[in-house]
Amino acid sequence: MKKNTIHSLCCTKDIVVVTVQYRIGYLGFFSTGDEECPGNLALWDQFLALKWVKENISRFDGDPENITVMGHSSGACCVDLLSISPYSRVNAELFKNVGNS
C-alpha cells in the first residue's frame, strides 16, 4: 500500500471519510435571479450535507469539532466557494479545515 494516500491514512489513523453527492450542471448552478430559482443549489446541497455530517459524525467515531472539507478539480472550486461564503461565516462551526487540489 502506498504511503500518505487517503486509503492508507484511513487504514492507519483515526480518520473518517465522508463523500457527498450534490446537484451539478444546470440543476446545480442555474438561476433565474429570483425566488423561483435562486441558483447555487449545489452549494446549498453541500451546506446541508456538512450540517448533517456535523450532527452525525460522532455516530461513526468522528470528531464533530474537527471536520476538514476537501475537494479535487471542480470539487476544489466548491470548497473554495464554501470557505468564502457568507453562510460559512455565520455557521463557522460546520468545518474547521480546508484542503483542495
TrEMBL record:
**Coiled coil feature spans:** none
What range(s) does the Carboxylesterase type B domain occupy?
A: 8-96
Which Pfam family is one of this chain's hits? COesterase
Q: Which superkingdom heads the taxonomic lineage of this protein's source? A: Eukaryota
The family database entries (InterPro entries) matched by this protein are listed as: AB_hydrolase_fold, CarbesteraseB
Q: Which PANTHER family match?
A: CARBOXYLESTERASE TYPE B DOMAIN-CONTAINING PROTEIN, CARBOXYLIC ESTER HYDROLASE-RELATED
The entry's protein name is: Carboxylesterase type B domain-containing protein
Q: Which source organism does the UniProt entry give?
A: Ancylostoma duodenale
